[in-house]
Amino acid sequence: MLANERRQRITPTQTATTLKLVEELPLWLDNQADSETTLQLARAHGLTVYDAVYLELALRRQLPLVTLDASVAEAARRANVAPNG
Fold it and tell me: What is the pLDDT along the chain (85 residues), one digit of tens a residue?
């Protein structure tokens, strides 16, 4: 979020508000990541492994992917992941 704030994609107020909302989410740990699929996604879409992990999770769990990163959003679209955000 700070990287997006520095790039002036979001404001400091939006960062603070979002972090407060995240604190209220019922979060859980996902320990079923598929590293082979993650690497395939990273290579196929020109993503970092870091970004491909989120795409793999969205695909595997059939969840939308929220991102401000245009390349990740495009990769999600090409992988038929529902957009959100």
Answer: 999 999 999 999 999 999 999 999 998 899 998 999 999 999 999 999 999 999 999 999 999 999 989 999 999 999 999 876 5
What are the strands, taking DSSP E only, across the chain?
A: none
pTM of the model: 0.70
Task: Name the superfamily (CATH) of residues 32-85.
Answer: 5'-nuclease (3.40.50.1010)
Tokens of 41: 């996604």
The DSSP H or E segment spanning 49 is helix 49-61
Dihedrals φ, ψ of 83, to 5°? -75, 155
The DSSP output letter for 83 is B
Judged by phi (left if over 0) then psi (alpha if -120 to 50, else beta), residue 8 lies in left
